[in-house]
Amino acid sequence: MHMQTALEDSANERVATPSRSGDVCIILNPKSGKKQTKPAPEELCGMMQRSFGTDCMVKLVGKNASPTQLAKEALHEGYGTIVAAGGDGTIAGVAAALMDTNATMGVLPMGTFNYFSRGLGLPEDLDGAVETLGQSEPTPLHVGCVNGEIFLNNASLGVYPRILRERETLYQKWGRSRITAYWSVFLGLAGLKRPYSLTVTVDGDTTIRKKTALAFVANSSYQLDAFGLEGAEAVKDGKLALYLTNAHSWREMAAHAMNLFRNSTEKGREFELLTGEDIKITVEKKTRMWIARDGEKERMTAPFHFTLHKRALNVMMPPSA
């Protein structure tokens, strides 16, 4: 079999090759996940070749080569199957390029939490994930967007983007781990000063006003089931689930976070749940805010419009998933 690896400085030298439609291109983020030994691109490509029985190529994510950019290059080159190897942010970046195309996305879990791949039913160990991926079939999945930007698991505004900033600082100092990520939650909450005044409209006909520290929109039933939250069935039925915390102070948020970790969160007491396919949120006295999407953050301009795009992404899923 033929195997290629592409480093960042050679990616632009590729040309469109329609005959590659049966081949696999891996978008690998070498910085994803914990500081542990990862397979070299050549080794990873060899594993995929044995599993898929086809040619393989690796493109490396780097400073000047984002997952979305590399996935678009792979599409242009004619690859029919493009595999995102990294965390949820890397996977979402690849998905942004493949949404509403005929290409199929595969996933190799190499992040910290790997919620998306776990929701697909893929093993968390790399060998098992590669083997399972080779036995999987394309399945159309729903995709969430906020102001036109994709999210697969969740998107939020309020205190969570602050938590992500704390998480990045801790990761740089201590490395990536789930314990570090959990600790960042409490550091982020400690910086909460006051709740936000939101106006929320769901599917154009339900409007509420609420003071809250966090608005969290979920598109992953797996993540909701993992934390014992109501709303998972609505997501499975093709809706977004919006959670508005009733907490106003960092102490209340910390208590709610502990209940979340213990799977003892209760609707009504700790949060208000709304479900729908189209959610619009405005924030009093705020025109731009940090929005978190699948563990990444960016500033966006209000109003914040969350939409669900049904069957917009073809994803390799195990037959039993």
Key phrases:
321 residues, alpha/beta, Rossmann fold, Tumour Suppressor Smad4, eleven-stranded mixed sheet, 33% strand, disordered N terminus
Task: Give a verbal description of the structure.
By secondary structure, the chain is an alpha/beta fold. The chain folds into 2 domains: 3-135, Rossmann fold, CATH 3.40.50.10330; 150-309, Tumour Suppressor Smad4, CATH 2.60.200.40. Helices cover 31% and strands 33% of the residues. The strands form 2 sheets. Strands 1, 2, 3, 4, 5, 6, 7, 9, 10, 14 and 17 form an 11-stranded mixed β-sheet that branches. α2 runs parallel beside α3 and α6 crosses α7. The longest helix has 16 residues, at 159-174. The radius of gyration is 20 Å and the shape is elongated. It starts with a strand and ends with a strand.
- Overall, the morphology is elongated
Using only C-alpha atoms, the radius of gyration works out to 20 Å
Q: What is the name of the CATH topology of the largest domain?
A: Tumour Suppressor Smad4
- What average pLDDT do the residues reach? 83
Helix content: 25-40%
Q: Could you tell me how far the N terminus lies from the C terminus, measured between alpha carbons in angstroms?
A: 30 Å
Spans of at least 5 consecutive residues with low confidence: 1-19, 186-190
Second-tier CATH architecture of the largest domain = Sandwich
Strand content: 25-35%
Number of strands: 17
| CATH class (first level) name of the largest domain | Mainly Beta
Quick synopsis:
By secondary structure, this protein is α/β, with parallel strands linked by helices. 31% of the residues lie in helices and 33% in strands. The model is unreliable at 1-19 and 186-190 (pLDDT under 50).
